[in-house]
Design a protein that fits this description.
- There is one protein chain.
- By secondary structure, this protein is of the alpha/beta class.
- It is built from 10 helices and 8 strands.
- It has an 8-stranded parallel beta sheet with strand order 2-1-3-8-7-4-5-6, sandwiched between helices.
- Helix 7 links the parallel strand 5 and strand 6 (about 190).
């Protein structure tokens, strides 16, 4: 029996909206474990990484938030590494996307993995280019080796990913300098225009061809990638996003590859949601990713 390990990362320090630290609770409440159990998985819930909340900060300055995020990412890294070593598929529940510095770093500790980063944003800022100073908007750049040394070197020194093994899907909102960073990165970016012109199927075909040499793929799903009409409970909604059916095609296609090694579900904010709709969408997509099919 395949095993899945659920790990919560209730991070709310990488951005400004309160409530995203309740994301792991909302997704659990929406029935994640039950959905996986019904698909034949043995589900282990390892609870949450312990992270001080925003209310504990003295002044909320960048350096103060940075040190706490670094510590949380170090703990997440080790939890991710241990989950992979135990032969389980780890699912990380956020929390803001800065937690992925730890999760993706940890799952790639022993072996390179491919990354599909599904997000309305590039998360490829650095402290020098960011217009907000929000660390959740720097997570992917940090994983590629660009950003504060403390976060770049979480778990092990240097970049955690190779650019040829990284694909972004659903991007539609980038800062001016962030665009330049992303263009220079070597990562493959599929914007919403690409999805409109090529279809989600076409984008996925090219994405998986790029990652064909990767034995394992990590999916990092920021719920703001989904159009806010269908997933309203996020802190940075951007209209014109991926539809529910397009998202279902994405996860079903990735499931078919049998390469899924780990998963992030990030940025669910139940305070901004409507009747836990966004968490329910997250659970539905996860079930399809792990094998639920129409027939």
């Amino acid at each position: 029996m395949k095993k899945v390990r659920i790990i919560g990362i209730p991070m709310d320090l990488g951005q400004q909206h309160r409530g995203v630290d309740m994301g792991p609770i909302a997704i659990r409440y929406a029935g994640l474990a039950g959905a996986l159990n019904r698909l034949g998985y043995r589900t282990e819930d390892y609870g949450n990484i312990q992270i001080p909340g925003h209310y504990t900060l003295q002044d909320g300055c960048f350096s103060e938030r940075l040190s706490i995020i670094q510590k949380a990412c170090e703990e997440t890294y080790q939890a991710a590494r241990q989950a992979v070593a135990a032969g389980t598929i780890p699912i990380f529940l956020g929390g803001d996307h800065s937690g992925s510095v730890g999760s993706i770093g940890g799952v790639s500790h022993e072996q390179d993995c491919g990354l599909i980063w599904v997000d309305a944003h590039g998360d490829f800022n650095t402290p020098k280019t960011s217009e907000t100073g929000n660390i959740h908007g720097m997570a992917l750049a940090i994983l590629m080796g660009h950003g504060p040394d403390g976060l770049v070197n979480v778990g092990r020194k240097g970049p955690k990913l190779k650019p040829e093994n990284v694909v972004l899907i659903g991007v539609r909102d980038l800062d001016r300098k962030e665009k330049k960073n992303l263009k220079k990165s070597g990562c493959k970016v599929f914007t919403m225009r690409d999805i409109d012109e090529q279809s989600m199927q076409g984008v996925l075909k090219k994405s998986l061809a790029r990652l064909s040499k990767c034995k394992r793929i990590h999916l990092s799903l920021d719920m703001d990638a989904i159009d806010p009409n269908e997933a309203p409970g996020v802190g940075t909604p951007v209209h014109g996003g991926i539809s529910y059916r397009e998202a279902q095609l994405l996860v079903e296609t990735l499931c078919d590859t049998r390469k899924l090694g780990s998963l992030d579900i990030m940025e669910t904010n139940p305070i901004l949601d409507i009747a836990n709709q966004t968490a329910q969408v997250a659970v539905s997509l996860t079930a399809s990713l792990f094998g639920k099919s129409i027939i």
